[in-house]
Amino acid sequence: MIDERAAKRVLALQVVVVFFAVTAGNMVNVALPTIGADFGVSEGTYGWIVTGYMLTFAVFSAIHGRLADRVGARRLYLAGILVFGFGSALTAALPNIESIIAVRMLQGAGAAGLPSIGTLIIARVFPPEKRGAASGVLLAGLGVAASIGPFLGGALVQAFRWQAVFLFSSVSLVTFPFAARLLPRELDARGHTTIDWVGAALMTVGASLLIYSFDLLAHREFGLKLIALLAAGVLALVGLAVWIRRVSIPFIHPEVFADVRYSAAVAVGFLNQATRMGTVVLVPILLHDVDGLAPIWVGAVLLPGALLIAALSPITGRLSDRVGARKLVLGASVCMIIGDLVMATTTGASVVGVTIGMTIFGLGFSFLHSPLLGAVTKILPPRHAGIGLGMFMTIFLLGAAFGIATSITALELQADDAPSWLGLSLGGGAPFSNATLVLSALSLLGLLLVPWLSGKDPRPPGE
């Protein structure tokens, strides 16, 4: 354990690193339509800039914790800064969309270690009685980054083109020498742990193939290639299910899913995160393509909802301890559905309506994540707490990739003059309205699972 002054410096460093990482993620969403226009590609193609990143980020977030025991938390954290920073700089200079997607997937694998190992570092440099306060400071920095990201991204794209978003993220490289000096060497202590690389590979391949199949659907390619991809993706996931029952330390621990409450929490998180990411990627495309808004105003539309998430997320965990996670998650799901429905009735007709819908949507999501995490910690027995939380976060992040693929596919499967399913005259906004309804259906499915969060533990007492 290092002295208090040094620990505070480490915390300040992490706040800066998290600021760059989170801000970058929110800025890219606003830049997507401009990137697509520059390269002359469809939504289904440029959407992979975010989908690919989230996919590798999700899988490697589950690996980095164990990998830190093998190579040392300090080394892995420093490597994450380099991969994220240089990946951002390289993305700004790449000449085609395919190479951008490939580098973004590599960047996601490296950046996944920044939040997970950052939490581990806090646990090692702060005494138990001060870890909560330190985590609160880090969460506040995350909230600020999430709230200003869309507006900052819009301003950068409008002033300097989309490359500026990635060049801004590459400034995170200035934190590397400070991290190398401030992070204590004892964080490089190595242990002996087993990493299920086969399981991780099977999940990555299976999820990637299934999500890529959405792209083929969006382009109406219903032939043998689609069938082969779907079959290969399903086969990889079936292989994963068989594999994890044969190894001692699997990538996914099947026993944690024996509790129906945990499985329900994972499913609710997956579906609502899918709805969220699908929506925050879809709305900038709508505002750019249909409403003709400049990037900075696209960011302004997203700002109120992002501010609500930043302001309310830190307090919802404490609130869930008082009123219960189930009630908050129920209310969150309802708000997200209402927000999407408001947007579905106003797309292409009223930017103000879309702004109101996104604000209601942000209000709902702010009451979702912390209560769900709190519910998971109470559901899991101590011996499965670390494994279960890691698996929850991995599947939660995979929901983001699934949601983006779903929203883009629902949009591209429709003709430009498709009628609104709600029977409204929305002009060019009708396909976006219909895609938003598809996303709200995911939250509705999650809403139906919320009552299971308070079910009884099916395991015998003492397990």
Please outline what is shown here.
It contains 18 helices and no strands. With 463 residues, the chain is mostly helical. It is globular, with a radius of gyration of 21 Å.
Number of helices: 18
For CATH, the homologous superfamily of the largest domain is named as MFS general substrate transporter like domains
Largest sheet: none
Provide the gyration radius in Å.
Answer: 21 Å
Strand content: under 5%
Features:
disordered C terminus; Growth Hormone, Chain: A; 463 residues; mainly alpha; 0% strand
What does this protein look like?
With 463 residues, this protein is mostly helical. Helices cover 78% and strands 0% of the residues. The chain has 18 helices and no strands.
SSE inventory with pairings:
Blueprint: H1 4-39, H2 43-46, H3 48-71, H4 73-93, H5 97-111, H6 113-125, H7 128-160, H8 163-170, H9 175-182, H10 197-218, H11 224-243, H12 260-289, H13 295-323, H14 325-346, H15 351-366, H16 369-379, H17 385-412, H18 430-449
Helix pairs in contact: 1-6, 1-7, 1-8, 1-9, 1-12, 3-4, 3-5, 3-6, 3-10, 3-17, 4-5, 4-6, 4-8, 4-9, 7-13, 10-11, 10-17, 12-13, 12-15, 12-16, 12-17, 12-18, 13-14, 13-15, 13-16, 14-15, 14-16, 14-18, 17-18
